[in-house]
């Protein structure tokens, strides 16, 4: 800054001595060079910031794609996964005020670079448990794991198992139990996501303000729009990366894949979830490198110098003037602090702002919970694999959301919609979106036939106390455990929890090719046969399920688009009904409320509600409840969609209240407010209070975690 000031002083002193024609020539040459420098610098920063937005959106969406993988790997319930997901928001909230206030006074590009390093460190930390917690162990009968000891699935007599084999197995289990009892490795995933939230904090506020400060005014909105576009593309690649990693076995590179006896269609399958985090971490590191070489300040465009504030003027102020200016700024700061409470009172005294804030909080609760557990819902409801689920979400749903956001802004600009029209468009978008969501209740699949859980061993509906129904006359002679989950598919199309509970007496083959014979519980209802067979793995869902899944995808895409159309009008509505000097404060309160009251709690209580629909819980090696193995499809559908719709309906009531207040406040002559902000309908007296640049607002629209909540 001192060098720049001296150079400017020297430049002006030289100009006073030189002839007029040479002075004008030098000033034009200097202006041309400065313009080129400004364009080059801001474009480099724009490219770097766009890449950072892409990186953070990719890692955030990849976390969503690995929710079910993390749940199975660490044997934890959905409610705990919700806490892990919400830790990102907690990390963001820890330092957002400090970063927003002090960051603008420091070297903004380097702070963004430091944030990228912290974000990458958190991403790497999430993957670390894979290298310390040992190999993944899934429940499988001994004969399917290439064992040299031949053991009957139905252990009618424990003496048929060699004593040494039982002792070794028990000793191995106890050793593993001691290791697990001393560590809860999922905590590292939580801490890593917390670090991700801390590292992501400076990117949005400091990056956008840097562009706004040094870009030509008419280009700033375009630049910000480019950044937001890359932020939307990030989740597409995040879910596609999740699809790729879900196909790879979790311990790939550490074990012989031929010895793995489960496939990616098995509910116990865990993909290489950690691999994507390593890739995302490397991308975050690369994204942060350019910021360490960017200047703290760029030359301001010539068009902005005439209207620049104290930062430019201070270069030419004398020492006495600087002292007076400094004293004046101190008085201004004290006055601003004294106005904080009146500003807060003014903000919360605005009924439109309060009602819209309540509507947004409830709607974000609905959308965040729905998006967080959408992969799980598709897997459990339609029997799809994690890989296919992530591929579908990344390639179909997210582009629909991006197109909806763009369409909302385009409609606002094309038809020059006023504030009242924006409220109607936002309300209509929510209403028709949730109405479409209502139709998904009819597009579910019935429960798979699982003996002892969804159907009895005689083909009738399951008993209320399903754990007691796991045992029947056909397997009464077997020493089976009700805690095991090693499903097999009988030739009658019924899934059995284990070969032992199916009453199987013999097996042939190893690994994925194991076939069980003489299964006393397997057979058709008309002609039960004690010599029926079964194969490894659960049976596929009914023939109607693939068709229902296709219908679900179509409605889901239309719903995503419809709900997204109302995003931009709603945001414009928020900005139009706030006095200009309170807009930054209002947006800060809005962001804080969404993160605290929606981003953190929604994944947790959605997870708790989903856990209530579990039919069969897994068991940890040392005892205790693990991850859910099987959900009640009907109950899951009603809980997941029902909770989403109830919250959405409540938000619609608040949106109706917003529209009612706007109608009540607007007079007939005020209803002609166009997109260029010529008049206002929010009840303020000054026409100036409502003036905003519509094109800029529409293109730079941003709301909390938009790019990672798609």
Commentary on this structure:
This protein is mainly alpha-helical and 710 residues long. The protein folds into three domains: 32-141 and 183-301, Growth Hormone, Chain: A; 345-444 and 544-663, MFS general substrate transporter like domains (Growth Hormone, Chain: A); 447-540, no CATH class. It contains 25 helices and seven strands. The protein has helices spanning 2-17, 20-65, 67-73, 78-102, 108-127, 163-181, 186-200, 203-214, 217-247, 273-288, 302-305, 310-313, 319-338, 340-348, 351-372, 374-382, 386-414, 419-438, 466-469, 545-565, 567-576, 583-599, 601-611, 633-665, 694-699; strands at 488-490, 495-496, 504-508, 515-519, 532-536, 614-619, 625-631. A five-stranded antiparallel β-sheet has the order 2-1-5-4-3, with no helix packed on it. A hairpin with a 5-residue loop joins strand 6 (614-619) and strand 7. The chain is globular and about 85 Å long. It starts with a helix and ends in an 11-residue tail after the last helix. Belongs to the organo anion transporter (TC 2.A.60) family. Residues 468-523 form the Kazal-like domain. It is found in: Cell membrane. Residues 45-666 form the Major facilitator superfamily (MFS) profile domain.
């Amino acid at each position: 800054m001192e060098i720049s000031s001296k150079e400017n002083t020297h430049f002006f002193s030289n100009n006073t001595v030189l002839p007029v024609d040479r002075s004008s020539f030098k000033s034009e040459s200097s202006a041309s060079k400065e313009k080129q420098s400004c364009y080059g610098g801001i474009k480099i920063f724009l490219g770097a910031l766009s890449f950072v937005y892409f990186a953070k959106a990719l890692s955030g969406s990849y976390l969503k794609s690995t929710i079910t993988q993390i749940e199975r790997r660490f044997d934890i319930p959905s409610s705990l996964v919700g806490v892990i997901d919400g830790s990102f928001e907690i990390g963001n909230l820890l330092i957002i005020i400090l970063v927003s206030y002090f960051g603008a006074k420091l070297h903004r590009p380097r702070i963004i670079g430091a944030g990228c390093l912290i974000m990458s460190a958190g991403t790497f930390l999430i993957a670390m448990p894979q290298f310390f917690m040992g190999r993944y162990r899934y429940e499988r009968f001994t004969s399917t794991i290439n064992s040299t000891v031949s053991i009957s699935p139905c252990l009618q007599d424990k003496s048929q198992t060699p004593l040494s084999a039982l002792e070794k197995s028990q000793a191995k289990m106890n050793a593993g139990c001691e290791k697990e009892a001393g560590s809860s490795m999922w905590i590292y995933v939580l801490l890593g996501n917390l670090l991700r939230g801390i590292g992501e904090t400076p990117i949005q506020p400091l990056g956008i303000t840097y562009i706004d400060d040094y870009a030509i005014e008419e280009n700033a909105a375009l630049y910000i729009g480019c950044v937001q576009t890359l932020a939307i593309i990030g989740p597409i690649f995040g879910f596609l990366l999740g699809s790729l990693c879900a196909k790879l076995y979790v311990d790939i590179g550490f074990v012989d894949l031929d010895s793995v006896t489960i496939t990616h269609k098995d509910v116990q399958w865990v993909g290489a979830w950690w691999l994507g985090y390593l890739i995302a971490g490397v991308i975050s590191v690369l994204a942060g490198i350019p910021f360490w070489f960017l200047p703290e300040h760029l030359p301001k465009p010539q068009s902005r110098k005439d209207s620049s504030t104290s930062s430019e003027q201070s270069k030419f102020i004398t020492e006495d003037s600087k002292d007076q200016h400094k004293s004046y700024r101190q008085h201004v700061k004290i006055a601003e602090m004294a106005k904080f409470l009146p500003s807060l009172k003014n903000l919360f005294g605005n009924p439109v702002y309060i009602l819209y804030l309540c509507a947004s909080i409830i709607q974000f609760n609905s959308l965040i919970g729905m998006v967080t557990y959408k992969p799980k819902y598709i897997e459990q409801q339609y029997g799809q694999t994690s890989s296919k689920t992530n591929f579908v979400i990344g390639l179909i749903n997210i582009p629909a959301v991006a197109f909806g956001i763009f369409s909302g802004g385009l409609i606002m600009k094309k038809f020059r919609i006023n504030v009242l029209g924006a409220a109607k468009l936002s309300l209509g978008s929510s209403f028709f979106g949730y109405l479409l969501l209502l139709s998904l209740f009819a597009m579910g699949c019935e429960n798979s036939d699982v003996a002892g859980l969804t159907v009895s061993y005689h083909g009738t509906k399951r008993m209320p106390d399903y754990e007691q129904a796991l045992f029947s006359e056909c397997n009464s002679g077997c020493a089976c455990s009700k805690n095991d989950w090693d499903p097999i598919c009988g030739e009658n199309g019924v899934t059995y929890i284990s070969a032992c509970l199916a009453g199987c007496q013999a097996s042939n083959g190893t690994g994925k090719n194991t076939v069980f014979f003489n299964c006393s519980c397997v057979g058709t209802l008309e002609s039960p046969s004690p010599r029926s067979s079964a194969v490894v793995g659960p049976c596929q869902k009914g023939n109607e399920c693939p068709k229902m899944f296709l219908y679900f995808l179509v409605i889901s895409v239309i719903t995503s688009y419809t709900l997204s159309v109302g995003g931009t009008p709603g945001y414009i509505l928020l900005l139009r009904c706030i006095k200009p000097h309170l807009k930054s404060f209002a947006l800060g309160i809005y962001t804080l409320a969404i993160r605290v009251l929606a981003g953190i709690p929604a994944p947790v209580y959605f997870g708790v509600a989903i856990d209530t629909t579990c039919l069969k819980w897994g068991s940890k090696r040392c005892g205790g409840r693990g991850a859910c193995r099987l959900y009640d499809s009907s109950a899951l559908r009603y809980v997941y969609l029902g909770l989403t719709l109830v919250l959405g309906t409540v938000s619609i009531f608040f949106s109706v209240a917003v529209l009612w207040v706007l109608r009540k406040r607007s007079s007939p002559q005020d209803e002609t407010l166009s997109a260029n902000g010529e008049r206002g309908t929010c009840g303020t007296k000054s026409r100036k209070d409502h003036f905003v640049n519509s094109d800029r607002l529409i293109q730079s629209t941003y709301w909390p975690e938009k790019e990672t909540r798609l």
